[in-house]
Write a structure and sequence with these properties.
The complex is a heterodimer of chains A (499) and B (497).
Chain A (H helix, E strand, L loop, with lengths): L8 H7 E12 L38 H13 L3 E2 L6 E4 L9 E4 L6 E9 L5 E13 L3 E5 L11 E5 L6 E7 L9 H19 L11 E11 L9 E6 L2 H20 L8 E5 L4 E4 L12 E2 L10 H8 L6 H12 L3 H9 L3 H9 L4 H19 L10 H12 L5 H12 L5 H8 L7 H14 L1 H8 L6 H11 L6 H12 L1
Parallel strand pairs in A: 11-12
Antiparallel strand pairs in A: 1-9, 1-10, 2-5, 3-4, 3-14, 5-6, 6-9, 7-8, 10-11, 12-13
Helix pairs in contact in A: 3-4, 8-9, 8-10, 10-11, 11-12, 13-15, 13-16, 15-16
Chain B lengths: L7 H10 L4 H19 L2 E4 L1 H17 L11 E5 L26 H8 L3 E6 L33 H8 L5 E5 L6 H7 L2 E4 L20 E5 L2 H11 L17 H9 L7 E5 L9 H16 L3 E5 L7 H16 L18 H12 L2 H14 L5 H24 L2 E5 L15 H5 L6 H6 L2 E9 L6 E8 L4 H19 L10
Parallel strand pairs in B: 2-3, 2-4, 7-8, 7-9
Antiparallel strand pairs in B: 1-3, 4-6, 5-6, 5-10, 9-11, 10-11
Classes of the chains: A alpha+beta (499), B alpha/beta (497).
The structure holds zinc ion.
């Protein structure tokens, strides 16, 4: 295969109009799977979270997970969708080893959420309305690991290992309508939409939306038409776009690639392409000789989903403040600049800081802990900020201990280290490591006297009125007490003893 | 009277009174199976050890004087090999599941165990319940105890033959288009297809999900009613199961046995009779109508004009669902695997080629075609419309009659081999039973006598609206009591060994 000719991006934008479409799969974080009672936890030993139903054993039957339906409805409502009062699941039939029944139970022509929209804010503050065609429920497949062979794909593999832990995990697929007229901003719109959708879904508490773990997956549909032609081009569907940055890169690359094909007088093939994270390019999937016919028909083992209007309204009442509205509110009340806010958001610190504030810490202290010391700790460990083994409640407790004088800043960091090391709650760490500030005079006087005796020249200076010289003695006492002394009290004692 | 010829109700009474032990009852039936099943071949698997152990538990309870687990505690039963059993293989009559032991019990299995019923073993059936003769079992046909050269009906021929041969007083079948009722008719036994959703399908290996229904089989209407109440009722593991109390069919059967049907209207479906029905079947049906009238019922004629499309609709819906339900048999997780070492796709194809019989393949191909894009509306879509029309026909008919009646099957048992190569002729056996499955209403077959020309049993089909089983059992029990009083029990000749 010859390497694709890529057209310079500015040139593409000058001569072509992109039409964008995005399909996002969100894995719900329900306790149990879509149609059975198995746990959904990520990372368990292979094939330990399975039962007759999600293994598709003969005779097994599905039962719809009410919480998954609830999550689907809440996502739909948050996206301003209409909720269908009645709808059936369908079977999508195809053979693949990681599909236990060799059909996927999915909603096909009767999705639960239809016709919504989301206003997406771009970096310059302008907004684009992205219309939502549908959001529907389906079950995830198992995972295949193809061993041997060069590509890691089933073809050419020596053997394959199958893990059905993921089989039957509930998914919501959110499909946009065609997004026209984004011009050169198509990559930015795509990224902003997926980012905002991720934040929205996260705020609903229905999914981890971790693109790196596959709990949020994105497919990018893109076509080009010559500017002003009004003719919709043939689209490609790029799969495996697994980070926000990749969404942007995939759109940009497909625009350049498709323009190259069109410029050469070629035709765009309607096909599935795969995004290559390393190179930032897309490659064509294996071409099938015949187009796949999924032989959809209504799932006879399930009864229709018919959410009552009362239930839908009840769920509407549970929708939290939209994340972007919340951000605007926080920005105002904390007095943050746009840049400061963006830094907090990008660091993933906003929720954590807000929760810390909610637990009683002043906004300034909460912010400083999360963006400074804890961000540093997260970077050292190579994890996201919210994956650190410390909770906003614990941070708030440390802040409170500093405020009450029980800890100074240095000790506070040691307490946080203890919590991060799994030594328990802040108070437990204080106790166990013996980190309390020493303000007990008895212990301090002995240390002060020792320091004074060691530096008689300094004592003379203090006695002669050079009070600032006391700093040297304070330093010596702090050193001797391993930083646990209450520095203020030490200074008072030095002055007392020298006058 | 020996233990094996007793009705389940009588046997249960003797077990409770201590006159017969459950272990003796189980052993007597196991002995009978050992004696005749070589000729009948009703069973694919006999679980003697587990059966005796289960019976011993019942005897302990009787000795301790504790209340029986159910009115059928200690009574032996033959279970169609389509229900998952944790302690026995479950093959569905197919090579593709040869030796497969499910890691779980079907809800029906679990309810039988909880009721203290002794499960003797698993009965033969047409592969994946597709057939009307049990000739499509991968493990060889079952023989009709009335004439071993003839079929016992299907797909549940094993269960029906076990009853007729006194290998068990109770059995469980499944009915997708007549698989309980037609075998009952041709073996002179009683078989009930409950309302769709009346008996849990969890653990029943699916043929066609929207049509399948498990149900009781017995030699008397009362026995079927007692068993119906054990297995029936809501199951949260089956989304299509009905969340309503099981109709009081035992009470209805006892009431019916008193022989008074006055005030009840019995509808004769004009479209289910006449041409294509064997003369002896027609004669038996006419006699049945006279008997019902004599019992006080009012006979009315009803018309169900869309029943004539039932067969066509059924043979689109069933294969469509089959093609999808049977896709899971792919050698990846359980069951047969051939072409080990080849690619996954090759293993799947080779296993399905080797593991499925011709009738199953025929229906998978039909269904795959009917669901294909471009054909869906013309086939599956149209068939669903017919289904709605048939439901409307039933609704209109049930406005005029409390129950509907027809011959259960158009002919008596035919010789083994006669129709096995002629699918259409085979399909016609279910002409009268298919409409109830399409509409999800209830139906049963009760013996109505012997056909004059061949001396083989004929069945009377009684149909009732959804959850209308009580009136159906009442009519069935009244008819049975009256016929027994006049003609005596239909007992198959002693099986030649
Ligand atoms: Zn499961």
């Amino acid at each position: 295969m010859t390497a694709p000719v890529l057209v310079d991006y500015a040139d593409v934008v000058a001569r072509y109009e992109p039409t964008l479409g995005l399909e996002v799969h969100v894995e719900l974080s329900t306790n149990t799977k879509m149609f059975c009672g198995c746990p959904t936890e990520f990372g368990a030993e292979p094939n330990t979270q399975v039962c007759p139903t999600c293994l598709g054993l003969p005779g097994s039957l599905p039962v719809v997970n009410r919480t998954a339906v609830e999550s689907a409805i809440r996502i739909g409502l948050a996206l301003n969708c209409s909720i269908a009062p009645w709808g059936r699941f369908a079977r999508k039939n195809y053979f693949y080893p990681d599909m236990p029944k060799n059909f996927q139970t999915s909603q096909y022509d009767e999705p639960i959420c239809v016709d919504g929209y989301m206003d997406v804010t771009l970096d310059d503050g302008s907004t684009v309305r992205v219309e939502i065609e549908r959001a529907h429920m389906e079950e995830d497949t198992g995972k295949s690991l193809h061993v041997g062979g060069a590509t890691g794909r089933i073809h050419g593999a020596e053997y394959s290992l199958l893990d059905y832990n993921r089989a039957g995990v509930p998914l919501i697929e959110i499909v946009t309508k065609m997004i026209p007229d984004t011009g050169g901003r198509a990559p930015e719109v795509a990224r902003a939409y997926v980012t905002q959708l991720r934040d929205l879904v996260k705020s609903l508490g229905v999914s981890d939306v971790r693109m790196d773990q596959g709990s949020m997956r994105c497919d990018v549909n893109l076509s080009l038409s010559p500017t002003g032609s009004g003719v919709l081009g043939t689209r490609t569907e790029t799969k495996n776009v697994n980070s926000l940055r990749s969404v942007e890169r995939a759109v940009r690359y497909e625009m350049s690639r498709q323009a190259g094909v069109l410029d050469a007088g070629g035709e765009i093939v309607q096909e599935t392409r795969h995004f290559e994270e390393q190179s930032g390019t897309t490659r064509a999937g294996r071409r099938k000789e015949t187009s796949e016919d999924y032989r959809y028909f209504p799932e006879p083992d399930l009864v229709p989903i018919a959410p009552s209007a009362e239930w839908v309204e009840e769920l509407r009442g549970t929708l939290p403040e939209k994340p972007w509205e919340r951000r605007a509110r926080i920005q105002e009340s904390w007095g943050l600049s746009d840049e400061e806010l963006r830094d907090l958001v990008n660091a993933g610190a906003l929720d954590l800081i807000e929760a810390t504030v909610a637990a009683g810490a002043p906004a300034g202290e909460a912010r400083s802990w999360w963006v400074a010391y804890l961000t540093q700790q997260a970077n050292t460990r190579g994890v996201e900020l919210d994956q650190l083994p410390i909770t906003p409640l614990q941070v708030a407790r440390v802040v409170a201990l500093v405020a009450s004088g029980d800890l100074n800043n240095k000790l506070a960091r040691q307490v946080v280290d203890g919590v991060l090391a799994g030594e328990g709650e802040p108070d437990t760490v204080v106790e166990a490591r013996g980190l309390k500030v020493v303000s007990d005079d008895g212990a301090l006087i002995a240390a002060v006297d020792e320091a004074l005796a060691a530096q008689p020249d300094v004592v003379e200076k203090i006695k002669s009125g050079k009070v600032q010289a006391a700093g040297a003695i304070v330093g010596a006492v702090m050193k001797a007490t391993k930083g646990q002394a209450d520095a203020k009290r030490v200074r008072e004692l030095i002055i007392e003893r020298c006058t | 009277m020996s233990v094996i010829t007793l009705s389940a109700a009588e046997l249960a009474g003797r077990i409770q009174s201590g006159e017969v032990s459950a272990v003796e009852a189980a052993q007597a039936h196991l002995d009978r199976i050992a004696e005749v099943d070589g000729s009948v071949h009703a069973f694919l698997h006999v679980g003697a050890e587990a059966a005796l152990a289960s019976a011993a538990l019942v005897d302990e309870q009787v000795k301790a004087g504790s209340a029986p687990a159910s009115p059928l505690a200690g009574v032996p039963l033959a279970l169609k090999d389509v229900f998952a059993t944790i302690d026995m293989p479950t093959t569905c009559g197919s090579k593709i599941l040869e030796g497969w032991r499910p890691p779980y019990d079907a809800t029906v299995t679990a309810r039988l165990r909880a009721a203290g019923i002794t499960i003797l073993g698993k009965t033969n059936m047409d592969e994946f319940a597709m057939g009307s003769s049990t000739e499509h079992s991968a493990y060889g046909p079952t023989h009709n105890p009335w004439d071993l050269s003839r079929i016992p009906g299907g797909s549940g021929g094993g269960s029906a033959a076990a009853l007729a041969a006194f290998e068990a007083p109770l059995a469980i079948g499944t009915d997708t288009g007549g698989s309980i009722r037609q075998p009952a008719a041709v073996t002179g036994t009683v078989g009930v297809k409950p309302t769709y959703g009346g008996v849990s399908r969890y653990g029943l290996v699916a043929c066609a999900s929207s049509l399948d229904q498990g149900g009781p089989c017995a030699r008397t209407v009362l026995d079927a009613a007692l068993l119906h109440e054990v297995i029936g009722g809501y199951d949260p593991l089956d989304s299509t199961s009905i969340d309503a109390p099981v109709p009081s069919v035992v009470e209805a059967a006892r009431l019916g046995a008193q022989g008074d049907l006055s005030g009840l209207r019995v509808g004769v479906v004009r479209e289910l009779g006449g041409e294509g029905y064997q003369p002896g079947v027609r004669a038996s049906f006419d006699a049945a109508l006279q008997r019902l009238e004599k019992l006080g019922a009012e006979i009315v004629e009803v018309s169900c004009p869309h029943f004539e499309y039932g067969m066509a609709a059924y043979y689109l819906i069933l294969p469509s669902e089959v093609s999808s339900n049977l896709a899971r048999f792919d050698a990846m997780r359980y069951g047969l695997r051939v072409a080990e070492g080849a690619s996954a796709e090759e293993v799947m194809a080779a296993t399905r080629e080797a593991g499925f019989g011709p009738e199953v393949k025929r229906r998978i191909i039909l269904g795959t075609y009917a669901l294909s894009s471009g054909y869906y509306d013309a086939y599956y879509g149209q068939a669903q419309k017919v289904r709605t029309l048939i439901s409307r026909d039933f609704a209109a008919a049930f406005a005029k009659a409390d129950v509907l009646v027809s011959p259960t099957a158009p002919t008596t048992a035919f010789p083994i081999g006669e129709k096995v190569d002629d699918p259409l002729a085979m399909y016609l056996n279910d002409l009268a039973t298919i409409p109830t499955n399409l509409a999800g209403v209830a139906g049963m077959s009760v013996p109505s006598g012997l056909a004059e020309e061949d001396g083989l049993p004929v069945g009377l089909q009684i149909m009732a609206p959804a959850l209308g089983e009580a009136v159906m059992y009442r009519v069935g029990a009244a008819f049975e009591a009256s016929r027994l009083a006049d003609e005596g029990a239909l007992t198959a000749p002693e099986v030649a060994r």
